[in-house]
Amino acid sequence: MATGSRFDGALRGGVLPTGAHDTIADVPGVTVGHCTLADGPVQTGVTVVKPHPGDVYRSKVPAGAAVINGFGKSVGLVQVDELGTLETPIALTNTFGVGAVAQAQIRAAIAANPAIGRDWPTVNPLVFECNDGYLNDIQAFAVTAAHYDEACRAASRDVARGAVGAGRGMSCFDLKGGIGSASRVAVAAGHMYTVGALVLANFGRLPMLTLDGVPVGRIAAARAARAAAAVAAPPPEQGSIIMVLATDAPLDARQLSRLARRAAAGLARTGSVYGHGSGDIALAFSTAGTIAHDARYVSLPALLADSMLDPLFAAAADSVERAIVDALLQAVTVTGRDGHVRQSLRDAVPDLDPLLNAHRPNYS
Fold first, then answer.
1. What is the dihedral of CA 96, 98, 100, 103, to 10 degrees?
2. CA distance 99 to 71
3. In the predicted model, what is the mean pLDDT of residues 57-69?
4. Sequence-ordered alpha helix ranges (H) in the chain
5. Sign of the dihedral defined by the CA atoms of residues 299, 301, 303, 309, in that order
6. Neighbour-count burial of 7, counting CB atoms closer than 10 A to its CB (0-12 exposed, 13-18 middle, 19+ buried)
7. Residue burial 23-46, b: 16+ Cβ < 10 Å; e: rest
8. Residues with catalytic function
9. What ranges do the domains of the chain cover?
10. Among 27-31, 292-296, 359-363, which range has the highest average pLDDT?
11. What is the arithmetic mean of pLDDT over 258-284?
């Protein structure tokens, strides 16, 4: 697990207060687990987000998704869009690991509920991916069902971030990316609610990177020998980001889709333009109530009115922005396939703190 960074305080993201641990697990019931594969050319893994400690197939939670740019190979989004619920934990992995992880989710659901696919309907696995092929030998098909099971067993409220789990081989702004998380607390309709984000950050080119409004990427690129070419004609963006939002606010699937769309605001603040080859997908779920698998009638808590959602939208944007920064700050430099290296932000810009202080706008 990567350690924290001395730059954390300088890069909060937004103005809303954080949750107790500034991770997605500040939303009650949510846990995160990883299985990390780090062996020479194999630099990959699996990350799992559980919305509650029970059986998600038997006790579904409302969910909604937003496809900001659809260059992705996910499994399960169509049914989430249609029915507005989760039936399994949310799984993240590399592009070629999606099939193995989806099958593992199905097998786990059947083991807990043998009637699935026979007397009961089938289960909807939910797997998101990013391409970690620069650092990871993705053709090795290293991810197996056992790795999904291990990530599930490891799920806890202590959220490891950086080059762990599905984030092990990911790149972000030509630096080391990976798993990042954050949370924000907002007041809506007189009540305090938490919005937490977890991202799998694997997008962007260095000249695009913006932190607190400071063009850190351009400054870092200008220091390199290849700066002129990189800034003048950066290669096209071909990465992806998966953004998972959790909240304890009582929202239905339609409202959660609206919340998920606000993840794009936080993503844009860091410099992304949602490039042609970037799969930018957000999913939001609520832990305020569950829906029994065999329910004939559904009774959820009284929902927030749409006119009350602005504070939650702000919390979604802030927490996603901060989670992306967290992924960069928590990452360590990794060497992988064919000697490819991705430097951590801390290694690439060791003077980040004074650099930010020197260039941050002064509004006083």
1. -160
2. 17
3. 97
4. 77-83, 98-112, 145-153, 216-223, 227-232, 253-261, 263-269, 310-330, 345-348, 352-359
5. negative
6. middle
7. bbbbbebbbbbbbbbeeebbbbbb
8. 240, 278, 280
9. 8-354
10. 27-31
11. 95
In the chain, what are the helix, strand and coil shares in percent, each to the nearest 5?
30, 25, 40
Closest by Cα among 43, 42, 9 to 176: 43
Model pLDDT, residue 11: 61
Half-sphere exposure of 39 (CA within 13 A, CB side): 8
The residue among 244, 166, 161 whose CA lies nearest residue 202 is: 166
Please tell me the distance from the alpha carbon of residue 319 to that of residue 324, in angstroms, as a whole number.
9
Whole-angstrom distance, CA of residue 148 vs CA of residue 262: 29
**Distance (Å, whole) CA 364 – CA 358:** 15
Task: Report DSSP letters for 279-319, one per residue.
Answer: EEEEEEEE-S--EETT-SS---PPPPPGGG-HHHHHHHHHH
Q: How far is CA 338 from the centre of its chain?
A: 27
Eight-class DSSP state of 235: P
Q: Which residue has better confidence, 253 or 276?
A: 253
Q: Which residues contact 69 (CB under 8 A, 6 or more apart)?
A: 274, 275, 276, 278, 279, 280
What's the N-to-C CA distance of the chain in angstroms? 39
Angle (deg, nearest 10), helices 310-330 and 253-261: 50
What count of other Cβ atoms lies within 10 Å of the Cβ of residue 11?
A: 20
pLDDT at 1: 32
Mean pLDDT score across all residues of the chain: 92
pLDDT tier, 224 (very low <50, low <70, confident <90, very high otherwise): confident
Residue 323 CB neighbour total at 10 angstroms: 33
Beta carbons within 10 angstroms of residue 139's beta carbon: 10
| Per-residue confidence (pLDDT) for residue 140, from 0 to 100 | 98
Tokens of 36: 């990390």
Could you list the beta-strand ranges (E) of 40-126.
42-50, 59-70, 85-86, 90-94
**CATH class of segment(s) 8-354:** alpha beta
